[in-house]
Structures
1.
Amino acid sequence: MKCLITGASSGIGLSMAKYLASKNYELILVARRKEILESLQKELPVKVTIYAMDLSNEKNVYKLYENVKNENIDILINNAGFGLFGKFVKTDLNRELQMIDVNIKAYHILTKLFLQDFYQRDYGYILNVCSSAGFLVGPNLSTYYATKNYITKLTLAIYEELKHAHSKVVISALCPGPVNTEFNKVAKGKFIINGLDADKVAKKAIDKLFKHKPLIVVGPLMKITLFLVRFAPYKLMLKISYYVQYRKSKSVN
């Protein structure tokens, strides 16, 4: 069995790589930081192929697919991504566009290309690492939330299409709450909610994927939040979301 993981150098992606290695999966790991990938290649007890590339460059996304399309991959895990704290009127436009390229375009392209291959052979797993943000609005983290809404809804729509086509291909959206990763450092902010353990999130995500769960929500607080979204007035949810996103950051006045 073989799995491709993007954003594999840290956080959930790294934890997933370690968990799948413990199950003897061959891995293809993708991230920007070559030195970390090389360390993983030496440390993990399975065959590991690495690609050090920036997926905000659309050409690299297509290049990645071309390099691995004949590898008979069983699982695609789209995990690369980042956020940016700050009021929309002040956040850097170029950084936001880069985020859209990684969080949306890279996911969309890889999901499309691998899904077409998987659909043709009627087998394969796709796990899109989304977020509980995929069901909410995120003041002060607005672009990130918007990207996760896109991928979450896209994934669930594809799931329904596959179901009606009686396809054996499985696609799932992982929607955890905040996780203890490098997210805060990269996004230049800090959540007031304690983060979940990345290893536990990764294990649950992989296990639920193999059980064909379309939506994988991790963390009791997030399960409660998503339940409330169905019934709470929209303006109230906006206020709650604003409070949840409150953080101490130099980028926010």
2.
Amino acid sequence: MIVGISGGSGSGKTSFIKALKDLFEVDQICILSQDDYYFPRDHQVIDDKGISNFDLPSSIDQNAFVRDIQLLKEGHSITRKEYVFNNNLATPRQLVFHPAPIIIVEGLFIFSNEELMKLLDLKVFVEARDNVKVIRRIKRDRIERNYPLDDVLYRYQYHVMPTFEKYIKPFIQEVDIIINNNKSFDVGMKVLSAYFREYLRSKT
């Protein structure tokens, strides 16, 4: 089963997926993130202020992402160099992904890719209010990615929000499950984990 999980930047989808993964054995779930498929900075679109825009579908190697999902589905393991968001303080790892009964693919643009949408058996959208998302984005980019505050705020206003309105929000009508994460995703976690356990039982 291939499960697509998306949501706006700062919605908490990465935290949700990490918590979900912890509920299962390593051989039961494989998680593949679009974050590790970003093109290098010199391949990104430059805006009118000379700032690289990483919040566009073209920022990501969509073909490689879909190819690797298909390889996992066919039972092949794949390797990918970790993307560290141009953080000079971080050292990228060589990531290895093994096929599993449940393959979770996550990212901003998984629902706007028609070829990828055809591969998904279940579509999940993690949602939160705009003010909650921007606070989470600031905390994440300042701490985890070492971005200056002014840069974080500029990107949110001119890159993140326009992208959300055009490439992410419209697909909320096409998903199977919407998880409210304004305060907690606990209820959504219980629903989805129960569904996964039932699926795994049906395969034994």
3.
Amino acid sequence: MKLRVTLLLVVLLAPLSARAEQIEPRQEYRSCLQMARQKPEDGWEEAIAWQSLGGGEPARHCAAVALIGLGKYEEAARRLESLASQSRRSEAVRAEMLAQAGQAWLLAGKPELALAAQDTGLQLVPGLPDLLLDKAVTLAQVNHYQEVVGVLDTLLKAQPSRVEALTLRASAYRYLDKLDLAKADIARALVLDPVFPDALLERGMIRRLEDNPAGAREDWLKAINLAPESAAADTARRNLEMLDVKVK
């Protein structure tokens, strides 16, 4: 599994909480969204009940988030896009809804629709960092690595210490056979966060290409120890298995 799949889980699933809570400060909304993320079945029921009591747009948004947790990605994406098009809230709020729609489309395996939603969101709020990162992840999914670099260049000008962006750009540089640039980005990422599993995973990939299997093994084992249940750990385990087969 490539690093970009790991980053998809890191970048896309985690932000559903922080981003959504910016849309409506009321406790009821925050509670519904939290339930939708942690217990999507209960969150769905809560959202539907709230909607019947006049919950309006916040209730519909909560229901869409619950659908993502339930694995109904396409339905969630359609609902979020509809909300964004109908909402009378600020452009920033609508852009966040489109960001989530893009996340859902990508999880549904439809990157072209994810990119369309993300580009529409960026038209509303040009340069929105989280949305730029989402777009870079989507572009990486379809192997458009030069475009990934361009998007992340823009993001990193605004947020030069964004560890996820540095790690993903390092991965893109690696696929473009620009190892010196990849090494510089991943070194910077690990200075900022020495225990970021995805950065350790990526450095291991680079070390393997440099014929440094011992260094690669060290990084992958550390990634596994830091987050044994993570996607990064799963990828590290598979790479270790391939490394062991090659050694034998």
4.
Amino acid sequence: MIRLLRYCLSLVCCALLLTGCNLPQVTAEARIFLNLSLDYLGEYSLHQTEFDGTHVGGISAITYDRKRDRIYALSDDRAQPRFYTLNLKLDQGNPERPQIETLAIEAVTFLQNEQAQPYATDRLDPEGLALTPQDTLWVSSEGVSRRQSPPALIEFDLQGQWQQQLTLPQQFLPIPTTEDNPEPPPHGVDDNRGFEALTLNPEGDRIFTAIEAPLQQDYPEAQTEGETQLYNRLLHYWIGEPQPQFLANYLYPLKPADLLKGINGLTELLTVDSGGHFLSLERSYSPITGFRTELFQITTALARDTSKLDPLPDDLTGITPIQKQLLLDLKQLKIPGSNLEGMMWGPPLADGSQSLIVVSDNNFESSQPTQFLLFRLRQDRQLVS
């Protein structure tokens, strides 16, 4: 019997060897990414209006409150940093193609500083927003360099009251001017190119934020436009008990710009799962072609911590960056391009799938509505293997 089993096993092995060429070939890249796709469902335009004495516009980030079924939308007004509470209604009469039926403004909440006072003009430039399970909001600020206002990561309650602020690594801050160094070299977050992207993990005890463009000291000394690979930095914090703690930063490979695309930047992150998978939103602008937006799936699974590298060395051998894969180029949708800056996981759809909503910043231009794009996420929850 044992000899027979060994003989049968040898036949099976031979068969596998002979037919191996017909087995599916799985790339290393496929093993680290989720099998994701997006269906575009439609758009909704919120025309600029007035609410409680404010201009509703400049929406740079959104987040969904599932318990209250409401959206919080962050306005990047440096004079009056604030967020709006929105009531979203979906028309799901056609389960195959749900639409945004209405989007009503219900309230506006102004952010307050540590002294429980409204922020002075140009002290905060809010760009990223994320809701915690404890009903607080994390806000990322680009800072305003001309006013010596540094970038910041701040927690507020739902009434806009300051709760706490995270300490940023020195890599992200300017070098102080001293008598011995009256003109320090460029260092830290670039002006108006700071913390745009912000997201929490599903458990709400880790925060991830990224800058829109590379740190000033991370640009290579010699570069050719459109050819040199540039890297942003993505920060990873623990924000659970007993206290917040900085964990790591990783290199995010920013898609190089070219003469037609113009300037390019990372404007948003969104956590997919607890295993290091995210969506990233890159937006470019050119006076020739206008806005262009691309959605990527990224993973930090293999990324190496670069928190001790300041600046980045010319040779990055052995330093594994974040891995990324194009998920959707929005030019394929053939809809008017706009300044897309924020995205969130929205309400569940009638078929049980997850909705994704992407929002534009109209820069307070009365002729430009705030654009909400609705997508359906399709996901095989198992890693491709």
